[in-house]
Write a structure and sequence with these properties.
2 strands; globular; two-stranded parallel sheet; single chain; alpha+beta
């Protein structure tokens, strides 16, 4: 995934296949997101972006 693709995903916002995390400080929440993606069709977790 290149810079342009990441920017496009950010502009589209979160959905079933894209989730934003502001930081890596909450390991439990991060682990839950990864497990959810692993148990479905997968997705992208973008770190450093606020959910709002």
């Amino acid at each position: 995934m290149d810079k342009l693709e990441i920017q496009e995903r950010i502009l589209k916002g979160e959905n079933l296949h894209t989730e934003f995390k502001e930081s890596l400080s909450d390991n439990e929440t991060l682990a839950k997101s990864i497990v959810c993606f692993a148990n479905t069709d997968g997705g992208q977790l973008i770190i450093g972006i606020s959910n709002s």
